[in-house]
Amino acid sequence: MVVLSFVGLFLLVAFGIDVNAYKSYSQHQLWRLNVTTDEQVKGLTDLRRKAYEFNINFWSEDIRINIPVDVSIGPKSIRDLHEYLSLNKINYDVIMKDIGSMIDGQKLLHQFRPSNLIANDFAYDKYHPLDEIHSWIDTMVQTYPSLATSFIVGQSYENRTIKGLKISSNKQVMKRDGTPINKKKAVWWDGGIHSREWISPATNIYIAYSLLSNYGKDATITHFVDQFDYYILPVFNVDGYVYTWTKDRLWRKTRSKTSNPRCFGADPNRNWDYHWCEAGASRDPCDETYCGSKAFSEVETAQVAQFISDHGDTIVHYINFHSYSQYWMSPWGYTTTKPAQFKLQDDGSAVAVQALGAVFGTKYVHGSIATVVYVSSGSSADWTYGKVNITFSYGVELRDTGKYGFLLPEDQIIPSGQETLAGELALLRYIEEHVYEKDF
Fold this sequence. Notes:
Its main location: secreted. Keywords: Carboxypeptidase, Disulfide bond, Hydrolase, Metal-binding, Metalloprotease, Protease, Secreted, Signal, Virulence, Zinc, Zymogen. Involved in the digestion of the blood meal. Extracellular metalloprotease that contributes to pathogenicity. About 35% of the residues lie in helices and about 15% in strands. By secondary structure, it is of the alpha/beta class. The chain folds into two domains: about 30-105, Alpha-Beta Plaits (2-Layer Sandwich); about 115-435, Aminopeptidase (3-Layer(aba) Sandwich), CATH 3.40.630.10. It has an eight-stranded mixed beta sheet with strand order 7-8-10-9-11-14-12-13, with helices on both faces. The chain has a four-stranded antiparallel beta sheet with strand order 2-3-1-4, with helices on one face. Helix 6 crosses helix 12 (about 415-435). The longest helix has 23 residues, at about 415-435.
């Protein structure tokens, strides 16, 4: 018999929290659960809805048969979760025995490890807090004045600036046959929509720097900087990202107030006004996938959406970078039904994945969001495609596949940037052929 709740297994523990302290993950463990039956899926799905009450966090949003499910557990819940899994015949492996020591060790490495790639006083092989990233944007504008400008999307809930970098050359866009094109198309890439996914801002930053520093030196990069304008938002969820540096390394959501005074923020990738809060999203303010009180309730998603809409006549390619799992995905997320242009989109994913994998052998899976991972409504990629008609809209889950998860070490930043750049250049070639050379 499958046990579907923690009744009888857990006692709720009331404890005080120092709101000014950095959250400790000492003795927290990361387990990988091996799900083999529909009953186990149902039981874990029921558990997931209230897991936060027991200091349990599902790092994996997808719960399906034969798909690994990564779960972090506070020390007081380890024994009870083991008993629950044993009763339900769910096998598991311990991936990290002490998440806290992993976080602390990475902090020390960040402070004392010398950088191997510094330019303009910025270390590209290290993670950076928000103020350093915004200063980097200013430095790029100063260093490459003919190519780089900054742009402001708006202000966050906590009144932080949502700031991006635009890359654009003044060259006339030409078709391959030499025919001039009147209107240059644009690309949008963003990272850090989920604040704990530090590799996504770092990868965006590396790619942006590669485009700027290699313009006029590398023929392929020069070509694509001439062919497209680039709007790059390294950190989307600025409040949440600052919170991961100052209070809780594994915080995911925004930082807005909710109807529950104990719980803050919404999932900014469930808050978009396209099939908002249907399957794959929660109405519980304490849940990690809380969709918000309404579509675009979060000022960050509303302002990014407005900015993209204002430039929707030029933007033809969108990527929302995440971690982790190594997936390159296209719409739809809200349903497993494929859109009419799925083959066109997925063929682009295949091109990107092949080029990415050729660099270091990193394996990515591609397909639609709902079929590759899970059904998730109200996502950015669905909205950009469904509402703004950005055909080449994608959600990309970067490294790794679970060994480190959201705590990807800094020595993987440069490799992630190099292989993702290779994938993007191949995808841009594919998009160029369809946007400038063909009707679609």
